[in-house]
Hints:
By secondary structure, the protein is an all-alpha fold. It is built from 10 helices and no strands.
Amino acid sequence: MAARALPYRIGIFTLRGELAYSLSRMVEEPLAAAYVPTFQALREEWKSVLLEEIDILDALSRTQAGVDKADDGLDSFAGRVSRAVDNETDGHTRKQLRAALFKNKALAKFRRPVLGGQLASMSDWRDTLAKCGVPALVAMAPEAEDLVAAGKGAEELRKKALSRNRDFRDIGTRKQFIDKVNAARKEAYGGLAKLPYQNPTLPQNFGDGFFSTEAPREEEETIDEVKTSIEELTAELAARKALLQKLEEEAATEARAAEERLAQVQAAEELEAQAKALLEKAAALKARAKT
Length: 291
């Protein structure tokens, strides 16, 4: 059985384990001495690949943190603008502003995307706020411009980090290194597998012994990594539950606000009707008084 090709998505430490296994067997077998320098060099090169992968993963975490921070800023600002619209406007003006700013979406739904659609929808807020004619909202226009710019910057950095990671794995250093490892494994196996035909005292499967027989999983999973994965999933579940609670609270708040707005409109209409009736009654009394 030939040395199997290692998959491109192999865990970086599983990859090192494959190299260490083969190198250890070769160091102990004089007949494999010719391949020791190659595998020693690969083991050293692995370190530089690891450092690059760590740097890329750090960049992904760093840029995701930037995206989340920018999104929090936009969410908070959207909430303040929504309250300002309700406090500073009414009637047709309020309806027009909410349509222009929130695209006829409830605040909770509008804020749901992490940047993405929300960032696109808020890209014109500076102009909308600046031109709306409501002083309190006009004063918020510069902040809208700054927050949107921060969001676009964070999103661009995240895209670059993701692109770098894809290139590293699909065509770059990591992929090229795995190709080099697989080529070295294939070459070593070919040479070692010939030796039993030259030396009948060697077993026919002599070449197989220099390569681990357990096929690696696509992603390395050690006990510590499984524990870490569980911790991460638990944290993510807690975060999603917190987000769900936040969205439910925002939806309830938005629903109450809508009910309050409707009640205010109805109360205003009732007062207008009462005022009209009183004016009509007063006019009638004046008319009788003149007769």
